[in-house]
Amino acid sequence: MDIFVQQLINGLVLGSMYALVALGYTMVYGIISLINFAHGEVLMVGAMVSWTVVTALAGTGLPGWVLLLISLVCAIVACSALNFAIEKIAYRPLRNAPRLAPLITAMGMSLLLQTLAMIIWKPNPKPYPPLLPTDVLFLWAEGPVITYSQILILGTTVVVLAALLWLVNRTKLGRAMRATAENPRVAGLMGVKPDHIISLTFVIGATLAAIAGIMWALNYGTVQHSMGFLPGLKAFTAAVFGGIGNLTGAMVGGILLGLIEAIGAGYLGELTGGVFGSQYVEIFAFLVLILVLTLRPSGLMGERVADRA
What we know:
- By secondary structure, the protein is mainly α.
- Helix content is 71%, strand content 3%.
- It is built from eleven helices and four strands.
- It has a two-stranded antiparallel sheet.
- Strand 2 and strand 3 (145-147) form a beta hairpin.
- The N and C termini lie far apart (40 Å).
- Belongs to the binding-protein-dependent transport system permease family. LivHM subfamily.
- The chain crosses the membrane at residues 12-35, 42-59, 65-86, 98-121, 145-168, 197-218, 238-259, 271-295.
């Protein structure tokens, strides 16, 4: 029972990070029907910028939580500027091109960002400083544990997801996003500026990716130029799992994928008689992707076409 609850906690933490990144994929797809495969690298840039700021301010004597907030603001600004530039330079000129062209461009942008990050920050992994207390909290005596970083990740995810749903469903900007997703030309006739809304959607997605990148660095304690590829790919799987273009589906898909991975990692060795260990945990994400694409291509909650944002 203790192992199951521990893996449940780990799965919720992992799923929270997947959900934040998956929302970036699903929002962009909802607006312009594009899979932004460079989104994982935006997460990486957020983590690397945060590491740079924290390292630069390490000798100032500021508390860890202050360093975390400062680095978060810097990461959000850097990622927002980067994603804004990517949309304007790489995707906007191809908006009316065949769908294969922006897809190939997105893959090329991903490789470009990885290479630039390797040049700027060097290829070796870097330890991310523990900015929060490293003590663990026992849920009960000698039972499952949770760290302060994990509590922060779970709490931040709940707040961010609630704020995003409120933004999309209750505000004038959200209505403009939904109108642009449904029909950009008609939205333009009604006074909405589709180009501005699309750029803003990329900025919101970058903000979520920056937060997820710092969460990833806090949880695993290391950053490097290639760290965004696998989380980005799994977050895409989560978005497809829940229903690409559906905000609630992306959240649910991310959480479920994290739980499947964590629980699978805890019991895989036992279920296979020791043939496969927890190092094979990556297979679960891609098994989920294959099964969903085969059995339910629209995802668990279905792709929203007319009301996606």
